[in-house]
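Lab notebook, design round three. We kept the backbone fixed and only want residue identities now. Task for the bench partner: fill in a sequence for the structure below.
Input structure tokens:
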């Protein structure tokens, strides 16, 4: 397993690929999304196996949810991992429409 420093994790929005990416050195972690005018639909989160269990996905999800809030976007958490994160962190419920809340 490769060790990653979460404090130096650089997360970028690759708008062309419609995914947030974190460069892990030998691989990339990603959160795929579908953008709409007022909402961002998170569809898939992927962290390479050698980096699993180190908090990479949690750090990325917190980043994308904070960015959505800053941009006054609502969130549709289709991705099971994003949905679970929001369930565990109810401070993000305000950006999820009530009918879509986990």
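Proposed sequence:
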């Amino acid at each position: 397993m490769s060790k990653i420093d979460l404090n130096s994790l650089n997360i970028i929005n690759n708008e062309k690929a419609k995914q947030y990416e974190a460069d892990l050195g030998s691989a990339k972690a990603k959160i795929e999304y579908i953008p709409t005018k007022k909402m961002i639909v998170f569809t898939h989160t992927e962290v390479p196996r050698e980096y699993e269990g180190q908090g990479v996905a949690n750090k990325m999800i917190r980043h994308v949810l904070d960015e959505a809030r800053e941009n006054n976007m609502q969130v549709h958490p289709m991705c099971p991992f994003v949905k679970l994160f929001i369930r565990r962190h109810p401070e993000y419920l305000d950006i999820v429409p009530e009918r879509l809340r986990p």
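Keep this in mind before ordering anything: The mean pLDDT is 95.
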